[in-house]
Amino acid sequence: MQFIDLKSQQQPIRADIEQRIAKILDHGQYILGPEIGEMEQVLAEYVGAKHCISVASGTDALLIALMALEIGSGDEVITTPFSFIATAEVIALLGATPVFVDVDDKTYNLDPAKIEAAIGPKTKAIMPVGIFGQCADMDAINAIAATHGLPVIEDAAQSFGAEYKGRKSCGLSTIGCTSFFPAKPLGCYGDGGACFTDDEALDARMRELRNHGQDRRYHHPRVGINGRMDTLQAAVILSKMSLFPDEVQKRSALGAKYSQLLAEANCTTPHIADGNLCVYAQYTLRVADRDSLAKQLGDNGIPTAVHYPVTLDQQPALASCCRVSGELNNAHKIAEEVISLPMHPYLSDDDQRTIANAVREAVGDL
């Protein structure tokens, strides 16, 4: 049994991928080839944003977004401590300070009620994360940000395809950022990512920043990075988009089925907030003894994963350059208890029931 099954996904689109790659091999434009512009248009339309700027990775997407907002030394960015290190790493790389506030105990996303107390004169942005495939409470976060004149960067590395009150992730704030790492809900066959915005000036700035700050050949009005997405990866994304809307619905249905099968088990299943459609980048439980559960499932040939057992405020690389606002009790407790089960759009009903039965046997009933 596989944790994520990319081979089954590839089968129906293999011929199309090969045809698209052959076309690129023929025209030879491996960097910023025509497929990049085509993909950006398709993704912008899907999200409902005016602009999509493809980049080399999800980490580059966050970095470029911060650079476009001119965030740097001495600035502060409010974010979550329960995420992959890239969320805070990019803030620190620019010489700014990640400011951690606690997460909601049910959704594990940034708690809007904790943000106001963390805002100070150095605050320059708020960066919520759509953890495990569910958007944060973006209306509440945007309202706080608007009161203080702050931009919001949505880290949607795990939530691309998710919906919040009928709107798509990445189209909910000043800038939306996502990752196309292969294991993501929409993944390419290498690294890749994208930024989304409705702001014309930010669009132009991010396009320059991803290409060494260049607005025309050998003319650099700003310092940028080499953050361009390979044309070959755009071909993969274009092909996968023929499947993606259906995969989003399958992910949502599979997540709901898991929760139904585990409703009476001695564990906490994901809480999906009203108005949200979750893409379940991971299907994540909370259990008192996850090591025991992981071992028992492993003995039955069922893979598991633990995402973020060490919160970002506790990471050695960030401890000396971050600021903690209030207590982080929820984040710390969640980090000790989460464990993720196999999740992908091609998970069979038999396999899902086998997994659920094994979990129930391992943790017992409520």
Please give a handful of descriptors for the protein shown.
366 residues, alpha/beta, Aspartate Aminotransferase, domain 2, Aspartate Aminotransferase, domain 1, four-stranded mixed β-sheet
How would you explain this protein's 3D organization?
The chain folds into two domains: 6-101 and 109-240, Aspartate Aminotransferase, domain 2; 244-363, Aspartate Aminotransferase, domain 1 (Alpha-Beta Complex). The two termini are 27 Å apart. A hairpin with a 2-residue loop joins strand 6 (163-164) and strand 7 (167-168). The strands form four sheets. Strands 1-9-8-5 form a four-stranded mixed β-sheet, sandwiched between helices. Strands 4-2-3-12 form a four-stranded parallel β-sheet, covered by helices on one side. The chain has a three-stranded antiparallel β-sheet with strand order 7-6-10, with no helix packed on it. With 366 residues, the chain is α/β, with parallel strands linked by helices. It is built from 13 helices and 13 strands. The mean pLDDT is 97. The chain has helices spanning 6-10, 14-27, 34-47, 58-68, 86-93, 138-147, 200-209, 231-240, 244-261, 290-299, 316-319, 329-337, 349-363, and strands at residues 51-55, 76-79, 97-100, 123-127, 153-155, 163-164, 167-168, 175-179, 193-197, 276-277, 283-286, 323-324, 338-341.
